[in-house]
Design brief:
single chain, mainly alpha, 6% strand, two-stranded antiparallel sheet, Arc Repressor Mutant, subunit A, 3 helices
Amino acid sequence: MERESVIVSDPEILGGTPCFRWTRVPVDSWTDHLEAGDTLDEFLDNFPSVTREVAIAALEEAKALLASPR
């Protein structure tokens, strides 16, 4: 059984920008923090509506997509 994605895109929320489920936090804010060298804890401190579990699940989803055969 497939797990529900923690990344959602809804045209009614930030014009369809992919966000963490149950928040209005864009996923690209997480990638921006990673690129800047911030830790997960620093990101979570700045976006308390994103849980550690959801942030890690988003990374796992991205990893699965990148590891999928094309």
